[in-house]
Amino acid sequence: MAGTLRSRNRRNIDETMEETPTKQAPVIEALSSNTATSDIEIYAKEVLHSLISDNLPPTPNNFSLYFDRLLEEKSESLRKQIHSMLELEESNDAENSIELEKILKQGFGSIKGILGATANLYKNMSLMTKILDQRKKELGAHPEIQEAVGIITTLEGDVSKLNSILKTQSSQMKEIYDNTAKIVKKVENETIFDNQFGVYNKRYLLTKLEQEMGLIKEFKHASSLIMIELSRELKKSINNEKATLLMTRTIARLLLKTSRRSDIVAHYGKGVFIMLLKHTDIKSAQKASERLCDLVSNSNFFLADREIQLKISIGVTNIDSIHSVEEIIVSVMDGVELAYANKDVDYAISLRS
């Protein structure tokens, strides 16, 4: 494993996340005299031209990737124009799956709450039975109030019947809960969403990484992987688990804010995130890392009366079809360690030999 360090070079945060050079394609900008439809038609032809120039098949997936990437190089007015059109037809299967996952988990939580309430009711009824039994014993010590003892005996029998019914229903609820838990567990094994940070989960990331490796083997394009984590020194200085979680969630939101639609932002585990940058070479991934570091460092976090400057460490590596998924993950982890080893940088590039 060979690693190379890169010093951070401050840049304009508003620059695009992707700057991979492509072969020359016609430069098209929106003109005030053109309609929105003609603008997007012209732009679509440019995207198709770029795909063909790069010897990539114009499949829907490749077209979408290039559509997003080339758009970053256009004027702000054209970007806004096209984004507004895209919002009108927004329909993402992955996002729909995420919403279904959320609803399923909420439903399971409700069932769990019902079970808890039923269990508490059963406990209270059991307590009532014990109280009645105690009062019956107390009244039994006074022969002059045998009539009251008889009433309590009758009431005790009624409560006992109700308690027996409730116990049966509680057992039925427990069985329903257990069956639902099994269903939810099966669904969780197929989920793609990390509920804690609002990004994709590790399972989905590894699946997409393996798919991208297959595409790279077939079409020979460049893609990169970056790993991001909240600075360990910052977490150590804070020494507050709740505050660390809130800061990590802030990092997740910033990653989503700056990522392209074609990028995969996922929680790898323990507050560490990985971004899969499709059709992005190391140079462009390096620039993306610089902008992420700048963006995060300009986002302050307030803890009580203390203002904290957020800081992240990033590892960068390339994706190829030669090494395994595990080796690529290890490589990007090595990049993070290289960044920590050099106090003058916030990110480092790790290249496999």
Features:
353 residues, alpha+beta, Alpha-Beta Plaits, 3 domains, six-stranded mixed beta sheet, two-stranded antiparallel ribbon, 10 helices, 59% helix, elongated, disordered N terminus
By CATH's scheme, which homologous superfamily of the largest domain applies?
Reverse transcriptase/Diguanylate cyclase domain
CATH architectural label of the largest domain: 2-Layer Sandwich
String of helices and strands? EHHHHHEEHEHHEEHEEEHE
| CATH fold field value of the largest domain | Alpha-Beta Plaits
How many DSSP E strands? Answer: 10
Biggest pleated sheet: 6 strands, mixed
Helix proportion range:
55-70%
- Terminal CA distance: 6 Å
In order across it, which strands form the biggest sheet? Answer: 1-10-9-4-6-5
Tell me, briefly, the overall form.
Answer: elongated
CATH C-level class of the largest domain: Alpha Beta
Mean pLDDT: 82
Question: What proportion strand?
Answer: 5-15%
How many DSSP H or I helices?
10
The number of domains: 3
Task: Indicate the topology.
Blueprint: E1 2-5, H1 36-53, H2 60-71, H3 76-88, H4 93-140, H5 146-188, E2 193-194, E3 199-200, H6 202-219, E4 223-230, H7 232-238, H8 241-258, E5 264-269, E6 272-277, H9 282-297, E7 300-303, E8 306-309, E9 312-319, H10 325-341, E10 347-351
Parallel strand pairs: 9-10
Antiparallel strand pairs: 1-10, 2-3, 4-6, 4-9, 5-6, 7-8
